[in-house]
Design brief:
457 residues, mainly beta, eight-stranded antiparallel beta sheet, seven-stranded antiparallel beta sheet, 33 strands, 11% helix, 37% strand, binds zinc ion
């Protein structure tokens, strides 16, 4: 590995072509904290191909955790974890919005253990979205873990939480989205394990129309055709179970858009942004008759996937226009099915039992790119008609939201970063606290500084 010196600094300066980022803010952010500093750095440099290390920072949370506190929410039983770098006065449960101030109950845990595989990048180059261990550009004796966002020679822009490469959105595949996503609400965590009580309290999931044949059950939700028949609702219309978000950033749940809040950053105070990229995962079973449907919406785009459970034929609509047809035979067999959908990175996808059944890209640049989401509109819905449905788990997640360094100063100016051959643009998943290519004076990371691939122990 080459050592740092004037020649290398000059090279770094050339790599840093980004013009709009203010230097004062750079200095401030450099002080916020280093990603994952590894105490064994010196040993590491002479060690073998696979090296055990321990995470010590917050920049890749909640995928990789440094020292942190853990506490179980007394209100909904959800686990809460937050960085041990500072102790806040109180913490707020990201799942239900309840504030907790009895933090003496919290248990402190050391950073997660991790292995570094030094052999992978001897054979091939790092890929986009891949996590890498690298020597920190501002202190080569420290190591940090980041995710590769920009490859050598690319122009990178962080816009509205997403990454654009050479002007086009960089879309993650669904598994990468889930790996990087932040949990928003999980039906497994509810008061005394009773989703009905929790639902009444937080009103996250509820029937869209009154009357609705959707009911909360002990484990999740059920749709009952007999109840629907008694209610004499219109027989051909989908009855929707709709998710309504409750913002918990201030400690009191209030209806509103899903924000880029991160439960791990309890001591962090900053402006939060509405996130439009969302995911839904649910486990359900429906009788092989009638219809089953999912609906997801962002600012100006909405998708409805509807399945005829008698035939297994599915159709996807985008803004009420036909977009695609698909097969969903597993749903038509009356089995338990894991359904996962995502409306993120300008793409809708639906997976059933882990297999992609339909996807539809769209461009949001024309239609309401800068418009705020309507808090009153449910971003996610599950629908049924003419069949009994049991849902025993449903989870809402949101995509990682990358913060652009200038957003707070002038949201209409999105900086563009361009890298010379041989340099990678890397970011931490926990964008609010990560120190990375956005803020390092040299910006991109030359490939010589990449030392391996992290493997969680
Ligand atoms: Zn809670």
């Amino acid at each position: 590995m080459p050592s740092d010196g004037p020649a290398r600094e000059a090279a770094h300066d050339e790599l840093w072509r980004h013009e709009t980022f203010p230097r004062a803010a750079t200095a401030l952010r450099l002080g916020v904290g280093v990603a994952i500093a590894l105490v064994l750095a010196n040993t590491f440099l002479v060690a073998g191909l696979v090296v055990p290390l321990r995470v010590s920072g917050a920049s890749m949370a909640e995928g990789l955790l440094g020292p942190h506190y853990r506490l179980t929410c007394r209100h909904c039983n959800a686990p809460m974890r937050w960085s041990a770098e500072s102790m806040p006065q109180s913490v707020t449960c990201a799942n239900c919005g309840q504030r907790h101030s009895d933090l003496q109950r919290a248990a402190v845990h050391s950073g997660e253990r991790m292995l570094v595989d030094r052999s992978t990048f001897a054979w091939r180059s790092p890929r986009r979205w891949e996590k890498v261990v690298l020597r920190c550009p501002i202190d080569a004796t420290e190591l940090c873990v980041k995710r590769v966002i920009g490859l050598p020679g690319e122009k990178i822009q962080i816009r509205d939480g997403d990454v654009y490469v050479n002007g086009k959105i960089a879309a993650k595949d669904f598994r990468t989205q889930i790996e990087m996503s932040v949990p928003v609400h999980d039906s497994r965590y509810s008061i005394g394990g009773n989703a009905m009580q929790e639902s009444q309290k937080a009103r996250r999931w509820r029937g869209q129309n009154a009357p609705s044949a959707w009911r909360a059950s002990a484990a999740g939700f059920v749709y009952d055709v007999d109840v629907a028949a008694r209610q004499k609702t219109q027989s051909s219309e989908i009855d929707w179970l709709a998710y309504h978000h409750a913002q918990s950033a201030r400690g009191t749940p209030t209806a509103g858009a899903i924000l880029d809040d991160v439960g791990y950053n309890q001591a962090e105070s900053r402006m939060l942004s509405p996130t439009r990229d969302i995911m839904l995962r649910c486990r359900l079973r429906a009788e092989p008759r009638g219809k089953l449907a999912w609906h997801a919406r962002t600012v100006a785009d909405e998708f409805t996937a509807e399945i005829d459970l008698t035939s297994g034929a599915g159709k996807l609509q985008h803004n009420a226009r036909p977009a695609a047809g698909f097969r969903a035979d597993c749903c038509a067999r009356g089995e338990w099915v894991l359904a996962e959908l995502s409306l993120a990175d300008e793409r809708f996808v639906l997976l059933l039992n882990g297999l992609l059944v339909v996807e539809s890209p769209f461009s949001r640049s024309g239609s309401g790119f800068r418009r705020a989401p309507q808090p009153s509109a449910a971003p996610l819905k599950i629908g049924a008609n003419g069949t009994n449905v049991i849902i025993d788990w449903v989870e809402v997640r949101r995509d990682v939201y990358y913060i652009s360094p200038v957003t707070g100063l002038n949201p209409t100016r999105w900086p563009t970063y361009q890298w010379l051959p041989g340099a990678y643009f890397v970011l931490g998943d926990n964008s609010a606290v990560s120190v990375d290519s956005r803020t390092w004076p040299a910006g991109a990371v030359p490939s010589e500084l990449v030392v391996g691939k992290p493997l969680v122990w």
